[in-house]
Amino acid sequence: xxxxxxxxxxxxxxxxxxxxxxIAPDEILPVAQRLLEAGFxxxxxxxxxxxxxxxxxxxxxxxxxxxxxxxxxxxxxxxxARLDAAGGRLLVSPNLDPAVLAAGxxxxxxTMPGVFTPTEAFLALRSGASGLKFFPAGVLGVxxxxxxxxxxxxxxxxxxxxxxxxxxxxxxxxxxxxxFGLGSSLYKxxxxxxxxxxxxxxxxxxxxxxxxxxxxx
Length: 217
Description:
The protein has 8 helices and 9 strands. It has helices spanning 25-38, 52-62, 77-86, 98-106, 118-126, 137-149, 169-173, 193-211; strands at 16-19, 42-46, 68-72, 90-92, 110-112, 114-115, 132-134, 158-161, 179-182. Strands 5-4-3-2-1-9-8-7-6 form a 9-stranded parallel β-sheet.
């Protein structure tokens, strides 16, 4: 059992994480504004984007209180320290690396490592993860996630990422998925803020049709 646990998954109105892979620092604030206006409260900037820590720092400073800002594709504990210095509070990885997860937990970040097997899922929870990112969800499939979810502790935050869009929220909901990371279906390099806003509103509408929006009052 991990001696240090990550911060708990926050009570967002909608468990939707915008994955802005490839976004540049001069784009981040206009795009993020459209996402926030649409109802997103969690934004992830993958570290294989141009100058990602600059974007994270700018967004962390500008975002309203309660908005979860952080990094994806975090593969090295050294990057956790840089994420912390930039003000990021969300740490997402495509894999399960106990050293990365431990560094995030020590910084009291919200952590979501990528898992694909029951062994990885339980190890992530023992290591103090805030939630589990089933990735790539499109390869694992709804039935695979459902089978693993049946043996996970009650209340485990399960997110589907990879091959997921607003068109299949209802299908994944049948497997107990309540959180989604939206990448290319929401943002691709070159899209205008207005285009991202249109996609974001569609995603929020689809999410609310399946789950409803949680009140934060």
